[in-house]
Amino acid sequence: MPQKSNSDGGVGSTAELDAIVVGAGFAGLYMLHRLRSMGLTVRVFEAGSGIGGTWYWNRYPGARCDVESLEYSYQFSEELQQEWQWPEQYSSQPEILRYVNHVADRFDLRKDVELDTRVISAFFDDANNCWKVRTDRGDSVSARYCIMATGCLSSRNMPDFEGLEEFGGSWYHTGNWPHEEIDFTGLRVAVVGTGSSAIQAIPVIAKQAAHLFVFQRTANYSVPGRDGPLDPAVEQRVKADYAGFRQSNSAQPFGASTVISDELAMDLEPEERRRRFQTQWDKGGGLPFLGSFADLILDREANAAAIEFIHEKIHNLVDDKTVADLLAPKNTFGCKRLCVDTGYYQTYNRGNVTLVDISGAPIERINRDGLTTNGQDYQVDAIVFATGFDAMTGALLKIDVRGSGGVKLGEKWADGPRAYLGLGVSGFPNMFTITGPGSPSVLTNMLPSIEQHVNWIAECVDYLGENELTRIEPLVEAEDEWLVTVNEVASQTLFTSCNSWYLGSNIPGKPRVFMPYIGYPPYVEKCKEVVANGYEGFALSA
After folding, report:
1. Alpha-carbon span 439 to 443, nearest angstrom
2. Dmax over Cα atoms in the chain, in whole Å?
3. CA proximity to 365, closest of 354, 353, 374, 356
4. How far apart, in whole angstroms, are the C-alpha atoms of residue 44 and residue 111?
């Protein structure tokens, strides 16, 4: 049954709550809203000085969402959907952050969020059947439920570069960008990495810098974003039946409006196949291009056709053949997240941009004046590290989480994450993970995935209360079976054919396990089936 708060909170406080939520991004804020509307006492802890999660931290130049604005938004409130107006088809980081703050104010969420507060430990108390959470500000809080809304891409990967402390200029990480505007005008700048963040930032930085050096270990596939103002007629049409629009999207593999063609690439003649690729390329966006054919990520021959088309595009866009060859990825198309850009490849035609290949000779060290690789020194005034994230598990494992009997989450996941449906972990009662490993999460439109998880958790908590149950956790056998399912589905695709952050391959020493589940609509149906069967796969007790 709900516990009542005995403290107003604050630094050094001790409190008893119904639920603690870790993280105040899209997931944490909606979780707060749902639980509070059920009459439960909730507190959200957020390490940042503001809300917004990913969109609070990632303020780098050119940061933009690769899912259309009308879809990358909450759907729990029809009034919110109708009143908010998106200026662009694909929203920029400032606009998304403005939206999140509007939601927090509109639903009066800030009063239950503690900013600048990092959770350092969460222990399950078997005797009292509750979670004990401590923060870096001295808070000591207990709650029946602990809900991790720590995000899939929120733990920055910062390689240990020798000599970084000696560097005399300024350095930044795209995942922790300063709040003030950074002006690179007249500076020599190095960007380390060519993943999604770098591909968005490089064209913007190149227009300011006196000279830009891009250090590339692995080339990535990117397609044009084709962003522009949101067509008022499109907005009006969607808002006339937003519920129908959302319902239609929920039936698609990505949880977005992109419809994957049911045609197979190799069933078409080469010229017809190329015309299809060209149509999707002209349309813009990563999801539309991935949806060109049903088998791009399933069949090697179809995948090779996509690679050939994109390689041709790169060579047409980049004047220097040697540079174009370096920018043309050698790995499987789509096995890494497909990037979306605004003039990325054309940027290498600028006289002030140099591509440095470090695939065979990594950065040796950083010194006072710049970087050294392959025996050559590059003098720069600023360094931008676009080195990505410890995805899906990194943020959670930075917290000292201990379940029943004091079992450490880090030890349980020593050989890779194990979670039932990405929602819960055996041995960790009353702890839920939003879009955790084993859920579709990063292979979908994140907002519907977040809302589906939050709604499932809220309904579960309500069910427990209604039935006077106080404890829930996955069964070990259900967790094991789900892990097998996740891997079996992944093995039928080409997603596992290259080193990617889906597998944790970008983090030295991290177990190589394919973490997301492929298949959004079937996953949602599985979650419904679990509930219909009395929370099948979970142990419930009073």
Report:
1. 9
2. 71
3. 374
4. 10
Please say whether the beta carbons of 297 and 494 come within 8 A: yes
Contacts of 222 (CB under 8 A, 6+ apart): 199, 338, 339, 340, 341, 344, 345
Work out whether strand 130-135 and strand 140-148 pair parallel, antiparallel, or are unpaired: antiparallel
Can you tell me the distance from the alpha carbon of 454 to that of 149, in angstroms, rounded to the nearest whole number?
A: 10
What residues contact 236, with CB distance under 8 A and at least 6 apart? none
Residue of 30, 28, 96 whose CA lies nearest to 68: 96
**b/e for 159-171, b at 16 or more Cβ within 10 A?**
bebeebeebebeb
Separation between Cα atoms, residue 467 and residue 465, nearest integer Å: 5
360 CB-near residues (< 8 Å, 6+ apart)? 374
- For the four alpha carbons of 94, 97, 101 and 103, in that order, the dihedral sign comes to positive
Those residues whose C-beta lies under 8 Å from the C-beta of residue 30, and which sit 6 or more positions away, are 74, 76, 450, 451, 454
Asked if 43 and 206 count as a contact pair (C-beta separation under 8 A), the reply is no
- Residue 260 in contact with residue 201, Cβ under 8 Å? no
- Alpha helices (H) along 87-227: 93-106, 196-208
Q: How far apart are CA 107 and CA 127, in angstroms?
A: 36
User: d(Cα 276, Cα 262) in Å, to the nearest integer?
Assistant: 13
**pLDDT tens string 146-197:** 999 999 999 999 999 999 999 999 999 999 999 999 999 999 999 999 999 9
pTM of the shown model: 0.95
H-helix segments, 221-299: 232-240, 242-250, 270-283, 286-290
- Sign, CA dihedral 447-453-456-461, equals negative
Q: Find where tokens 């056998």 sit.
A: 477
Please answer whether residues 380 and 213 qualify as being in contact, where contact means their C-beta atoms are separated by less than 8 angstroms. Answer: yes
Task: Kindly state the tokens that stand for 158.
Answer: 């910062």
Residue indicated by tokens 């300011």: 208
Q: Hey, what are 172's tokens? A: 């930044």
Helices then strands (H, E): number in the chain?
16, 20
Specify the pLDDT at position 32: 98
- Looking up tokens 């789509």 gives 334
30: amino acid identity, one letter: Y
E strands, 136-193, where? 140-148, 170-173, 188-192
DSSP string, 441-463: GGGS-HHHHHHHHHHHHHHHHHH
Report the amino acid identity of residue 112: D
* Mean residue pLDDT across the chain: 95
**Percentages helix, strand, coil for the chain, rounded to the nearest 5?**
35, 20, 45
3-state class (DSSP) for residue 320: coil
